[in-house]
């Protein structure tokens, strides 16, 4: 039963990412000024929602009506060292040569760039197809498609993290 909050968090994150993707893409049909305003507002809302969703102990700063924003307290060095020692004991450390680390980092960067560029190419292709077909609201239809694609990607990536964390226990 303890797994339910993790899966709920995965679903919630995917839904929020999908909504923000849809807003971002659907704003493409607006005039430049309004489009920038909508995208800036959605980014600010995403930051606020992300901050509010963090547990209080993980927030980098706190809000107090009397003092305003304040930086979060940093843990004592001894406590940090103790936490690092515990983490090292529970997780086996993988030894990698410097060349292998560089290759892994390069592969991760290339994959990330490929996904970004591929998604943008797919977005342009879908939009052109919708416009050719005479769709009355091509950006709205594209926003729906991109939101579903983003949500599916978010769910799969986050489920992999949940499963990996399960295996580590």
Q: What features would you describe in this structure?
A:
The chain has 169 residues and is mainly alpha-helical. It has one domain (3-85, 97-168). It contains five helices and two strands; from the N terminus they run H-H-E-E-H-H-H. It has a two-stranded antiparallel ribbon. A hairpin with a 3-residue loop joins strand 1 (61-64) and strand 2. Helix 1 packs antiparallel against helix 2 (32-53), helix 1 runs antiparallel to helix 5 (138-168) and helix 4 (98-132) runs antiparallel to helix 5. The longest helix has 35 residues, at 98-132. The radius of gyration is 21 Å and the shape is globular. It starts with a helix and ends with a helix. The model has no long low-confidence stretch (mean pLDDT 80).
List keywords for this structure.
169 residues; two-stranded antiparallel ribbon; 5 helices; globular
Total number of β-strand segments?
2
How many distinct folded domains?
1
Instruction: Give the neighbour order of strands across the main sheet.
Output: 1-2
Helix content: over 70%
